[in-house]
Amino acid sequence: MPSTPAQRRAAFAELVRSPAPLVLPGAYDAFTAKLVERAGFPATYLGSFAAAASTFGEPDVGLITMTEMVDAARRIVEATELPVLVDGENGFYEPENIWRTVRAFEAAGVVGIHIEDNLGGKHTSRPAGLMSPERMAKRIRAAVDARTDPTFQIIARSDAAWVYRDIDDAVSRLQSCVAAGADAVFAPAIPAAKLKQVRSRIDAPVMVAADVFDAPGGDRPGSTLAEYADAGADILLLWYSLIGAAAKSVTAVLDALKEGREVADLGDLMLGQHTFESLMDYAAYERRAARYQ
Q1: Would the pTM of this model clear 0.85, i.e. be above it?
Q2: Which residues fall in a coiled-coil region (predicted)?
């Protein structure tokens, strides 16, 4: 398994180049990332939605800072051997200072970040807007210039298909980012059928948001993993599935307790303690401790 940042980045690049698309589950903390690794997935992801919820119990409305995202990512990197891709929001800084974002995530050991053109309003009823394509391209170019490791991935995200409902505009924006040096692009809210029509116009690997859930307003395309694979997507990002599953399971346990069920009767809703402990590799601790007895 890869362990150094360089090895993880090389492994991630190979996964993206492979014929089959990379299914990328989004962890929300170090323990979840260990579960992703144990399940056999070759890489994981940390998004600001999951980080804001798990760290602060707050919505993803732009409140999480760069250093908080870096710290959360570093904990995941240190807990697993997996390549870790991270949400870099809109870069946190203008082009002249975006080097600080890139260097901080590089130092944390992640394989790359995606940078978006969204100006705010995600996951809320507040109208969102996008920065101009020219301004976004400058950020991408500055981020590419800033990296010290050329294998560190700079992925450009455009929300034009989501905010403006304009897939052609999204493709045009992504094309300009590829021209500015982006290694790959991220195109949320493009359904698989539409992606299949425009995929040949994007000269870079494409990541899509492949979670299927009941988003208010129908913002998510609802295409299946197989449909996205057939459409030519290279990375199938599941940014919500794990934290959504955790919330449902914890809520089910709390509701059962509120209804008067005994803890001993909740085995269908939770792991046993010893099984849970095995997931954190207590055996490795025991072997290490035995050396000093």
Answers
A1: yes
A2: none
